[in-house]
TrEMBL record:
Residues 1-34 form the signal peptide. This is Neprosin family prolyl endopeptidase. PROSITE patterns: NEPROSIN_PEP_CD (PS52045). It holds the Pfam family Neprosin.
Amino acid sequence: MKRTHRYPSCLKATRLSFALATLCVAFAGSSSFAAQTGQPSFVPFQQFLNGIKSANADAYVARGQNAVKDSASFASMQQYVLGLYQNAHVSQSFLLGNDHFDCILVQEQPSARKQGLTHVATPPPVDALQPQGMTGGGTLNSLNQAIGISSQLAENDKIDALGHSRVCAADTIPMRRITLEELSRFPTLKAYFQKSPDGAEQLPTNQIVPPQVYSHKYSYTYQYVTNIGQTDTINLWSPYVNTSADQIFSLAQSWTVGTTGTTQTAEVGWQNYPGKYGDERSRLFIYWTADGYVNTGCYNLDCSAFVQTNSSWYFGGPFSNYSTVGGAQYEFLAQYYLYQGNWWLGLGSPGNVTWVGYYPATLYGSGPMSTSAQLIEFGSESVGSTSWPAEGSGNFASSGWSYAGYQRELWYWAPGGAADWVSLTAAEPSPSCYSIAGPYWGGYTPPSNYWGYYFYFGGPGGTTC
């Protein structure tokens, strides 16, 4: 999965000087879509499907950067894509980054069809989006100046370069197109669904002992507490992932975890994963597993799991803006909440959050997350073999505001629905590469201050992690 990127050569150093890091991250933080080059040609949806039907394994197996291992594996990918879009009607399509997105009727998306839904579930009430009666003194001055994202796309990015609207009509949702080009970068269909390419994914608090092909590194915080959801405002960055050095991905996220028996999760955050998405930009992602990442799970809408109900967010899509070192700080709020048998996901900015969709609790069978979660985790993760990419901004947590990544407004819902502040433990398994500063209390007096409990995270990565 090695790729050649068009990013500045300064990013190819393992550990960057502060000045070079500032220059490179500033480049990555600029508004994204209008200035792109090499955007793919537009392919109408029916033409795309016809191409899937007529595709030949010889054009994919052992060709170029493709990793699909044989014609049988290719055939299973081909049939999967055709099944994914079976009977789906597309009202419009558009380009976003190097991807096509298709506007599909809510009830014709793969998860709704597989689960036989005749209607989508009722979302939680609006007053569940914010904790009630949770205030506390304290001011952070400049720390309140972050730019909250209520949509991935800036106003001037809502039409693609060919004039197609990127806003889906009512009762439709934007689904990132799943292509054979993407699938064939993985050896098998199962490998495509896995969170990391060797299938050795784990939680930060439950790391796998080698041997494994790739190693996972973290800077994170956690709390064991029975809960029905949590909230997290995540500082948005796009750290460089050097695939020529066998670096795989870098992300920041929250994990809502069931730990009684098998590990089950509902996850959300941003992730730079060139081997999956085909470029060097962080994307909005969700992920789930019902059996410890063994046989279940997938990203975004790649399998029939998450039911998207709102069209304002683009799973697997990039953002218009990213934070810059010493400059503008962008963030988005993400929260999971178990309501009437569904793990609802809210996305937006503090005070302006929308319920976007849900994982049905039935996905988790009789496991712990059918009724609650027992662990919450917040932080960053990177994957590599002999070299690991930067996490967050690429600076250590001690760099602080606008120089290190942060996560803030951290609280959870107790069973019964009461909101409680977190009591987190910080962990630094790889302190030579990544660190945590905090958690700290920053005050909570909406609408002027939404900081609450927060921490800084991240670091430069390297070869000695």
